Amino acid sequence: MADEPAATAAAAAHDYPTIDPTSFDVMLFGTGLPESVLAAACAAAGKTVLHADPNPFYGSHYTSVPLPSLASFLSPDPSPSSSTAAAASGSHTAVDLHRRSVYSEVETSGAVPEPARWFTVDLVGPRVLYCADEAVDLLLRSGGSHHVEFKSVDRGSLLYWGGCLYPVPASADERGEDAAAAMISEEDLDRPFLEFLNQHGLSPKMRAVVLYAIAMADYDQDGPGPSEKLIMTREGIKTIALHSSSIGRFANAEGAFTYPMYGHGELPQAFCRCAAVKGALYVLRMPVAALLMDEPQDSDGSEGHLESTSESTDDMKPTLI
Question: Can you name one GO molecular function term for this protein (predicted)?
């Protein structure tokens, strides 16, 4: 929690802008998706929340970037580090926060083609959402769904097989996860899902449909890759049940998948809006320069204070504090 005299003195010493009020229950920095969900939850619980971001936009590294702006986003102009050691007094110790770039050695060649302005790059994906996914449920429960527009992924999934693309048929056939799991032994549930599919005689093409178009496996399930990347049977059955329950959940969604209309950057913004409605204070272009730590006295712990600067730090990695 910020201490008002210390924050005011530090701001006056460095001519930094002050934020009023100066005391909050929760302070979050970086408006990525995890921080934004936490801000919305804290604000809904009645906590006073300060949510700041060094960038001039929401989402941090969960944002959606116009394709022509991607190169400048990955290679921000370096800004000098500032020292706040002078702000420390006899009762405080200043710990400077050193900025570091998330991306390094980014190379670009040539000019961005004209059609690029019609495209947006999702930095976290792209990742489709199941209509019955927990993330969708969270948006509905929190009211975040009022601040983001979704679009159904038309035609469901496409499977690339033998040099051609094949549509994966969607079915509204409901199969309960518990009922399916009850027919499988505990030992089989902990085996790789590919072995389970082979055991039931699925053709190679049908196995690919189940693994990559329905269970949405990220890695080759039949290759020499690390075992931790393999989907286990238990997880595979849960995903198939999730896919099945997603079909037909919303009247305007034909298949099992949905996607934010303007990219995944809309998701953190939706939760930020929920938090703002509940009284959270948002400040962009406001990085954290240092932590001011109280000198320990008779207590077991110490309180920390935050000192900010309006200096641009687009290359500062967002951190949840």
Answer: GDP-dissociation inhibitor activity
| Sequence-ordered list of residues with C-beta below 8 angstroms from that of 65, at least 6 positions apart, any chain | 73, 120, 121, 123, 265
The CA-to-CA distance between both ends of the chain, in Å, stands at 12
Q: What is the pLDDT of residue 16?
A: 53
Give the integer Cα–Cα distance in Å for 184 and 44: 42
Chain segment 144-164, per-residue pLDDT in tens: 999 999 988 876 677 888 888
Instruction: For 84-142, write each residue's pLDDT tens digit.
Output: 554 555 667 788 777 677 777 777 777 777 777 788 889 887 788 999 999 999 999 99
Encoding tokens for residue 188? 């089989």
Question: Going by DSSP bridges, is the β-strand pair 26-29/281-284 parallel, antiparallel, or unpaired?
Answer: unpaired
Decide: 60 and 34 in contact? Cβ < 8 Å.
no
Residue ranges covered by each domain of the chain: 4-125+265-308, 130-260
List the CATH code of the domain at 130-260.
Answer: 1.10.405
183 φ/ψ sector (left φ>0, alpha ψ -120 to 50, else beta): alpha
Interatomic CA distance for residues 125 and 215, integer angstroms: 17
Q: What is the DSSP string of 38-72?
A: HHHHHHHTT--EEEEESSSSSSGGGSEEEGGGHHH
Listed in order, strand segments (DSSP E) in 186-284 are 257-260, 281-284
Residue 248 has a CB neighbour count (10 Å cut-off) of 17
Domain 4-125+265-308 fold is FAD/NAD(P)-binding domain (3.50.50)
Task: State the CB neighbour count (10 A cutoff) for residue 255.
Answer: 21
Q: Please give the model's pTM, rounded to 2 decimal places.
A: 0.74
- Closest of 48, 10, 60, 16 to residue 267, by C-alpha: 60
